[in-house]
Amino acid sequence: MSDERDSDARQATVAIVDDHEAVRLGLRAACQDAGYDVIADTADVPQLLAALAGGSCDVVVLDLSLGDGSSVTDNVRQVLATGSHVLVHSIADRVAAVREALAAGAAGVIPKASPMAAVIGAISTVARGDVLNNVEWASAIEADRDFARAQLGRRERDVLHLYASGLPLKLVAAQLGIAHSTAREYLDRIRAKYVEVGRPAPTKVDLLRRAVEDGILPGLDGEAGDALR
């Protein structure tokens, strides 16, 4: 298992954006020790874009608050536009800015006070294409319930309720009296809306969690697994 993790690390590419040189050097050294290929470390996003030269990397570790006056949203979106995933490196008490970063599409946030092993673990999670659900992420979401809840329409809620309960999409469509393609469009819109609020739901299990979290389904506890089999 360890060999598999090491292999994943060697294959992943990382870039670092932070306006403090000491932070960049520390992250670079830790990432290289973990086997990652650090292809750039820069003080701001424009320098990163120039270094990538139209390319991308697996993970960009992005400082939440850069000294150049740039906005969190713009920075995250510019990095995402390269095809790279974004892991925000933050001061933990800046909850509003963390929410903004997650809403813009960052895959997660890791506090600057975290042990370096936790930072490397977070990079590994994001490099795999997973969303980092940790205490800082949850705290930012919980602090603003309007941000947390996807604004689903009535029919979208109906589709989510039935689909997350375990019905195949064809049966969801039949029960609601709509075409299978229409049900698929509703499901795509539901997933897009959850991405917009920083709570991606790429799998059926994720959709079940979102439905429970937002009160669309009751807490299923042990029954959740049965519903998805």
UniProtKB/TrEMBL annotation:
Q: Which residues carry this modification: 4-aspartylphosphate?
A: 63
Record-given protein name: Response regulator transcription factor
Q: Which PANTHER family match?
A: TWO-COMPONENT RESPONSE REGULATOR
Lineage, top ranks: Bacteria, Bacillati, Actinomycetota, Actinomycetes, Micrococcales
Q: What organism, scientifically named, is this protein from?
A: Agromyces soli
A single Pfam family it belongs to is Response_reg
UniProt domain Response regulatory: residue ranges: 13-127
Q: Which CDD domains match?
A: REC_NarL-like
Question: What keywords are annotated for this sequence in UniProt?
Answer: DNA-binding, Phosphoprotein
